[in-house]
Amino acid sequence: MLKIVAELIAYSKLNGLELNPGKFVADLKENYTGSAKMRTIGLICLDGLAPLGVDFLQKAQDTLDGEDENGLEDNPIFKAISGFIPGDDKIGFVRDTFGAVSGWMDNLVGSVGLTPKKIFDRLGGFIDLSDDTLDVVAVFLDKTTNYYEHTGIQSVARKLMLKALKRYNL
Predict the structure, then answer these.
(1) How many domains does the chain contain in total?
(2) What share of the chain is helix, strand, coil (3-state, %, to 5)?
(3) pTM of the model
(4) Which residue from 29, 106, 125, 127 has the fewest beta carbons nearer than 10 Å?
């Protein structure tokens, strides 16, 4: 949930847009390709489907519904981005962002046919998995994989370099 908010903040800042979940979703539909789309698919697979199952969106929503800002204060991602979240109601902005993006994520999962089984079947091509270890693998991937930061840094660097090239006619 918070990675989505971080994505909205970075995308909006890089593109000179206001921090608006609705506009962000419209841009997701039109402009998210390449590494940006892979990053969001990674988020859906590794942070959603693998650890939480096919109803990951509802589970995430239920978690958000039970949270208040005090519950997020210890979260390192929230600490890192809270200063960039507009307004006084930070958790409200997180809820609004997740609510706006949920439909897009659900459509993406459905259009590609993503399931936890498909994710683990693909992973099984690289490591030996059994059905009773899937939750352990999901936790391992979550704790050891920093795909989101890696592709995010690449995307930001690329965008800034392209802006500089254009600005200085290089």
Answers:
(1) 1
(2) 80, 0, 20
(3) 0.76
(4) 125
